[in-house]
Amino acid sequence: MKLRVPLKFTLACASLIALQGYAQTAGGLPHLQKQGTATQLMVDGKVFLALAGELGNNTATSLENMQPVWPRLVAGNLNCVLAAISWAQMEPTEGKYEFGLVDGLIQEARHHDLKLVFLWFGSWKNGLSSYAPYWVKQDYKRFPRIQLQSGKSMELLSTLSDATRDADARAYRALMKHIKEVDSREHTVVMMQVENEVGVLRDSRDRSAAANKAFAGPAPKELMDYLQRHKDTLSPEFREVWAAHGSKTSGTWEEVFGPGKPANVEMPIQTKSPPLSADEYQTGWRKLHWPADEIFMAWHYARFVNKVIEEGKAEYNIPMFVNAWLQQPNMAWPGTYPSGGPLPQVHDVWRAGAPVADLLAPDLYLQYFDEVCERFTRNGNPLFIPETSANAANALTAFGKYGAIGFSPFGIERAVGPDTELAAAYRVVSQMAPAIAAQQGKDTITTVRMNQGDAPLKIKLGNYTLDLTYVGRGRVPIAPEPTAAGQAAGQPRPQPAPPVAAPGQPAAPNSAPATAILVAAGPNEFYLGAAGGGMRINFSPNTPGPPIVGLGDVQEGKFVDGKWRVVRQLGGDDTGQGEILTLRANTVLHVTVYRYE
To answer: What is the pTM of this model?
Structure first.
């Protein structure tokens, strides 16, 4: 016997199920959210700061190989790991997918309370195509390679192949469909990197017959329309090149963007001096060279990757990004670094060609850390650093100064450990994460770096100016009592100078560089965290009122489950009897201040 269910009840149930499904997929999925000038990663309704590390390229190719790695990642204070998924391993036979490894990595990450960012090694990895399946590699007619100016082909799949693009996109879509099936409730996988360091190596562009035909034709109308709509916000490197050739709105690639690489120039493995002058060595890596070639390749890589991302997001719409092998002094010409990748000088081309990519990310090993971060956060591009060195100071700078989503040293399994500088920095960020998350993208958070011997710094933060002096790792001596006149005048208490090594002598053991994240959480409230070395901090007011600033509550502690937990209440000798605030290494403080006269 069949029960007859009223139609209204059936529709109501269907609506409820649909709404529940929407909440699980649309509202509850990992997604990006703007806050001020920063963009943050939201996971399960909370800001997630990815204290991450990227595994070696082949470390996660078996669950057995990963067994000893997981505990080390946890011991190093990571909360996220970046692991590669190889197209060759996932689709060894065309149309037949193997997800056992994907499932195992997700399960092990959950078991160790870690989030995952998967790296899709599809058509390209480090500017070459070594992770494409065997059935793709051997069918060079169906899946053509690029050609160099010499006429020689290399193991680098061409962007100008619909067959390659569609095969890659199908496989990626299958991967995202499977991740949705196994992870749409738990949200272990929080982001995806699509391809890896794309671009042409050993030449400035693809010179196959198909590429030469496209290069001789007009620059696409979609690109030219985008440039006209955004002409006032284009990156300065790109705007300079476009303006130098008349800011044309149509024409061939070379007519609009200038000449490509001359036929008589042989591509070196690296650009050194010679052929670069000393000035070019310092400045050449910040510019577009042979612009038509790089812009042409950027457009075609962007269009290819956009299709792959579109297919993946159609199944499971979580944040997806593309990463860049950076231009640098020894690799200043396109082709010495992958020409056409999502570098700052062609970000506008990538935004036009791959609008579905959520962000463009730097693999940042250069000494110019701040400059690269500034270039990658122009025009609101969210900052995520998927590859870098294990530099603890850079980690704090990324989160505190540039509003980073995450920081991820490469080869983390070889560098991780509980006693490393990176582990200490990650501990500090973790212990003050809610305070950082609440202020990213605002003028109430910053990061400062100091070394022994540096002059004091003055940093305006909220209603106060913070006067910072380096103190290293050792115990800070108590300063002498202030004079009555100085106290009456509201002058800061005299401070002892930090020890400085004699000329030619090694630095003192406590002279580690100090990096601090400074957060103004309210009108008279601060959260302060330091790694490496320590700093002494004096406060002076920026607003009208009583001239003297006193220390109210000074607490050493940490955030646990979003709530501040006091580890030690500080006073007396630990605060210079209420007149000296010392932020010691690997410590987080909650400080309130008050004013009097």
So the answer is: 0.90
